[in-house]
Amino acid sequence: MNQQATNSAASQEILRIENLHKRFGNLEVLKGVNLSVRRAETIVIIGPSGGGKSTLLRCINRLEEYQGGKIFLDGVDIQQIDVNKLRTRVGMVFQQFNLFPHMNVLQNLILAPIKVKNMSKEQAIEKAHLLLQRVGLLDKIYAFPEQLSGGQKQRVAIARALMMDPEVMLFDEPTSALDPELVGEVLDVMKNLAESGMTMLVVTHEMGFARDAADRIVFISNGVVEEEGPPEQILKQPQKQRTKEFLRRILE
Amino acid sequence: MVEAFYELLKNFNFLLIGAWETLKLTSFSVGIGLILGTFIGMGRLSRYRIINYPCTAYVEFLRGTPLLVQISIIYFGLPQVGIQLAPYPAAVTALGLNSGAYIAEIVRAGIQSIPRGQYEAARSLGLTHWQSMRYIILPQAFRNILPALGNEFITLTKDSSLASVIGVSELMRSGQFVISRTFQTFSIYFGIAFIYFIMTLVISRIVRYAERRLSVG
């Protein structure tokens, strides 16, 4: 990192958010968010509910449209990228898993690669095997979502998103709907993914995960990035009053 | 009295042929209604006014006017503007358009019954709006609305008797034909009712069976 530090840092930037504004009617949710994400970086986004964390993620893959500011993926304004193409490059995992209940695990995984990326069925099935192995659910390949626990569902959802070979993965409170004893297995999968070099933006209340897996913690409150920095700094020595208050409340 | 039911038995085969025609007429019409209703139901949920206004108008108009009038417009009215349909196609058209409106409302409710997250998950994987509808939303919606569709089929089986007024030889018309020869109004109309009842009973059983099969898979 020392040689040509500025230069390589700039070329490593995969996602850049500039002065992002988002309104729902009269309610302004994002009031000028700025954020730069390097390739392979794991960012944990924390902050009070209603502060705009989820909305920010949903703007990045354009599930929400925004009124002001710009988002760049690998240097290109995402408004210039075909929206369906963009979504194959930016995967998303939801709080409620959103597995397709009328399809088994394998079908859940192979539908989009076949329909969107024109992958052959054989190739897609092979890839599904690899990814299910990676999330430890190969034995559930023919199970239907209703036969799975919450943790298993979320691991399938992660595998499903990975089927598209995304460059960035967005996690919108991936463990918030889980029973406490099932949180660990999902976080383990996410940690492995982070270590494998995936670029990840994770909205979560799991401070343990933030401490262990995050390269950077971003504290969002009132529609702006209040404070950001490495986990040790944000968790141990937060500078801003809002950050301190939030952490005190959540760590109690 | 004995003679009356003797005439019913004697002409029962003839009535059954009419019943078969009723079944075909209804099936064709529901088929058309299903295709029409699926698109119009989706159209009603479109955020584009140019799509959802006409779809809404269609549903409101066809639900708000009597089927008998609709049949009359198509069979007796259209020839005056140069569109001449034979009785059978006219009946299928009228019943199909009519059931399309009711099915559109059923489909709309079915789509709305699927959690928004399903659509978002599909779109977040790069599927287009149409792909998301076709592979994710509609299959789940149809499973949910199967009972309502079965109801619509039953309603239309009964309503198809109105096609008798334009001379389609379905069950009702066949019955009237038998009556014109035998003058046995009570037994024959009763026989017709009985056959309609058996048909709708069988349909509702089939739907219930299909429902159970689907809810397992």
Quick rundown:
The complex is a heterodimer of chains A (252) and B (217). In chain A, 41% of the residues lie in helices and 25% in strands.
What are the SSEs and their pairings?
The complex is a heterodimer of chains A (252) and B (217).
Chain A lengths: L4 H8 E12 L2 E12 L3 E5 L6 H8 L7 E6 L2 E2 L5 H7 E4 L11 H13 L3 H14 L15 H13 L5 E5 L7 H16 L3 E5 L3 H7 L2 E6 L2 E6 L1 H6 L4 H11 L1
Parallel strand pairs in A: 3-8, 3-9, 6-7, 7-8
Antiparallel strand pairs in A: 1-2, 1-4, 4-5, 9-10
Helix pairs in contact in A: 4-5, 4-6, 5-6, 6-7
Chain B lengths: L1 H9 L1 H33 L4 H15 L3 H11 L9 H26 L3 H9 L4 H31 L11 H12 L2 H32 L1
Helix pairs in contact in B: 1-9, 2-3, 2-5, 2-7, 2-8, 2-9, 3-5, 4-5, 5-7, 6-7, 7-9, 8-9
Account of the protein in words:
The complex is a heterodimer of chains A (252) and B (217). In chain A, 41% of the residues lie in helices and 25% in strands. Chain A is of the alpha/beta class. Chain A has a single domain (38-251), classed as Rossmann fold (3-Layer(aba) Sandwich), CATH 3.40.50.300. In chain A, the strands form 2 sheets. In chain A, strands 6-7-8-3-9-10 form a 6-stranded mixed beta sheet, sandwiched between helices. Chain A has a 4-stranded antiparallel beta sheet with strand order 2-1-4-5. The relative contact order of chain A is 0.16. Chain B has 217 residues and is mainly alpha-helical. Chain B has 9 helices and no strands. Chain B has helices at residues 2-10, 12-44, 49-63, 67-77, 87-112, 116-124, 129-159, 171-182, 185-216. Chain B is flat and about 70 Å long. Chain B starts with a helix and ends with a helix. Chains A and B meet through helix 3, helix 4 and helix 6 of A and helix 6 and helix 7 of B.
Using the 3D structure, state the CATH architecture of chain A. Answer: 3-Layer(aba) Sandwich
Distance between the termini of chain A: 38 Å
- Unreliable stretches of chain A, pLDDT < 50, 5 or more residues? 1-8
Shape of chain B: flat
CATH superfamily (homologous) name of chain A: P-loop containing nucleotide triphosphate hydrolases
Report the strand count of chain B: 0
SSE ordering of chain B = HHHHHHHHH
Order of helices and strands of chain A: HEEEHEEHEHHHEHEHEEHH
Major β-sheet profile of chain B = none
How many β-strand stretches of chain A? 10
